[in-house]
Amino acid sequence: MERGDSYTITVYTLLRDQMYVEAVEILRMELETHAHSRAALSLLGTFQCLGSWILMSRFVGFCYYHMQEFPLAVEMYEQLCRSYPDIQDYHMYLAQALYKSGQYESASRKASQLDGEQYIQRIHLLHAAVYYEQNDLKATRSILEQCIAQEPTTLVFDGAMEFKEGDFEKARMRFHDAIQILGYQPDLAYNMALCFYKQKQFGNAMRQIAEIIEKGAREHPELSVGSKNDTTCDVVSVRNSSILRSSALVEAFNLKAAIEYEMKNAQGARDALLDMPPRSEEELDPVSLHNVGLMNMDVDPNGGLKKLNFLLQNPPFPVETFSNLLILYIKHGFHDLMADVLAENTHLTFQLLSRDLYDFMDATVTLQTSPEDAYRKYDELATKHIDRLRKLTKRIQDARVAQNNDEIKVSLKAYDDVLEEFIPVLMAQVHIYWERGNYTQVEKIFRQTAEFCSEHEAWKLNVAHVFFLQGNKYEQAIQYYEPFVKKNQQNLLQVQAIVLANLCVCYVMNTDNEKAEELLRSLEREEEEESVRDPQKQLFHLCIVNLVIGTLYCSKNNYDFGICRVMKSMEPYHRKLGADTWFYAKRCFLGLALTLAKQMTTIRDSTIDEILEFFDHVDVHGKQIRASTEAEMHQNENSRSHTISFEARMLKRVFLQLRL
């Protein structure tokens, strides 16, 4: 066999087996030998047009496609077009590569220069794609009308248009029609799932997702679906291969995570992301990185904020990144950082934020300098939302009278959407009075909004909190806290720890100690069972409950019981001791030290002995733990942070002096 035949067979065999790294290496060697080899240029350019390869300095042949370096494909096809100007295919490939690299005007101009009947459909689709990316939907629709109506690519494009215009049912039918012609395609099945998701039909979306995952895992076991968990760090990356892209597994798992997250199942969302084919963090696509950051905020807030900031500084990024970062900064109390991000990205403000969300952010910025002006802005925004809720309530009532089920469904969804926008505004309003300790006014505002919000979980939870903090309405607080606990009676670890803690305090203050003790026993039993199932998992529910109860007794000057409860909350130390738990524990010890120094109270000698022994244990287990919380480190980036061990020794010295 001649060298040329061997060369061709080798290259096409590698292409067939999708071994693009090896194929590119051979082709580049050929190019070095024959600088203007048409075959090598064409094949190499084809890879780049489809997905691109990036050439890394460490080893030749690293896949351009991996990083989707479409500009490299442009360079390749420009060289081909200069060398062989009469071959129209190369000009078509160049136009496609220009489009993929984001050079839309150049792509459109190059496509317009092409001749030949066989290119008409592809040229129309390329022009439509350019207009679509530029959000010129009218021009896109005009071009699509010139395309072959029942051609699968046209159907898919029509579906994308319907999706962008918000008609998710029509979009789904377009994707379904395309599947009927082409057969099952994972990417089209994903598009259908996404339409169901947008329609809040989570069950249908999950069924589509399950089929994508099942087929992908069965047909491509090398993608290692489900091989990763919280404790495995050494799983081999499958990289961003063409097989992974064609399987739509990444998209499916991201959508599954989004559904779990929207259904308030944070652990389910994290599990969905872990089940995704394993890749290193550097290999994650923007959507996956965004979701990993967002859905791990409750366990790694610092890491989540870093990921979203990275995406914002390295476009392209998911359109939700900007608004989510701003909202998370507000949620975690970093108002200055939120204002900085808003000021540094004014070009994104009107492009990616709705008018209502921008007004909310503007009011929050104002809050830092003028709470009165901020409250006025919040109130104006709240009034708009309430007007919309009233109109939607009327629409729902009219639809029920007319027995129009479709209108009822649409109106209920619109009502829920507006309510979700209203709740953060309401909470921002009451927070201004909350910070001033004016709980009576907070309760008044909550009562005024009960007409619309009384079934919303966040509203009910905060009503419980405001009754609790008033100090004389524990019975009312119990009425709101108990449903949260009863709903998860068999899984108390799913209930917020502060709810359990406050409910226990309410029982104690209501002289119903038996209920408090029973709740504590149930919680302790659940934590022990969970520790057996997952020895590495950190559980803080019982710790927080004991901290709150201990703090309560300390505030009532019953330090002998209260401080012992605080110390108990830290056991076992290797699981419970951390910057956040230590922050609240040490406040009780400092309060006790101050009270003892002023000779305003006394405690038993045995309690002092237990305190000194406690500090010794903290000293041993806190040597590698910084004493500053995440919030403190964000607000004081240049401040020095001691270890918990250091602070425990300082406190021990104080109590030794008080003992003398």
From TrEMBL:
Keywords: Coiled coil, Repeat, TPR repeat
Pfam families given in the database record: TPR_16
Cleavable signal peptide: none
Gene Ontology molecular function: any one: intraciliary transport particle B binding
Keyword Secreted set for record: no
Any one GO cellular component localisation term in the record: axonemal microtubule
Entry coiled-coil feature ranges: 506-533
BP GO terms, sorted: intraciliary transport
Record-given protein name: Tetratricopeptide repeat protein 30
